[in-house]
Amino acid sequence: MSKVAVFGSGSWGTAFSMILADAGSDVTMWARREAVCANINDKHENTDYMAGIELPHVIEATTDPERALSGAEVVVLTVPSQTLRENLTAWAPYIPKNAVLVSLMKGVELGTVKRMSEVIAEVTDAGPERIAVVSGPNLAREIARREPAASVVACEDHGVAQRLQVMCHSKAFRPYTSVDVIGCELAGAYKNVVGLGVGMAVGLGFGDNTTASVITRGLAETARLGIKLGADPLTMMGLAGLGDLVATCSSPLSRNRTFGEKLGQGMTTDEIYASTNQVAEGAKSCASILDLARRNDVDAPLAEAVTGVVSGQLTVSDMMDGFVARDPKPERD
Q: Is 43 a catalytic residue?
């Protein structure tokens, strides 16, 4: 059995721990709170984030990062993207020097506009052959129910991607490999912004024509920025791109779409934050994604509008009116 440490005990960290355990790994989860660890260790359930789902008994939990990392061959990181740098700085001294670091996070760091793999490299000095990302249409609750799903494991070293592929290939979860880390990360981060936009349209009561238009133009924005940064445009058409985008924009289980719906219904960003313990990464990262696009001279009207709404500088109605009122042009422009 491979020893894996999973840092983060939220919905996705819990679901991915189940995938790893089902595929044969020995999994230790790190959680901030003793109560979460006690439930996982004693009841084999994460009652805060995955109530009603029995966890494999090989999963254990601890609040001690050194214990979680002891002997780990793979370290999975699934904390909120804007807290990664601070957290990882504290954990780095305990990470085994040859361990592979896997990001499940979908965001861009505020200020630095760095992708999560870039933050990991900076903090740990790990080379690209030790850094991987997993991204795809993976709504955590469905994964935990072991409904069939697929995803992409990306690493610049294809051999490492293949090794990780084996470690998370279970009866219900089918991973594919890629070497396009940039494309997978960017698509995963940008789809949250698009999900917010779709949720806003739904919250206003608009139908499928509107949401399909937002999804398609959002995908075009993602591809423009991805190509500028060196991503493979075909990644945007795959599981990490279109697949994840469809799941996020179409499911009520999506935290970003739900956040957008509440904005469309008139709630403020602060009110939504106060009403839930779940993190909508798009609301945290939309400003940094817009900043990244501007620094690379890429037109990003959807990211700009979503950021305006989230920051309270634009109403949802004004956003939708502006979406239609933009100057007409050829679609490929």
A: no
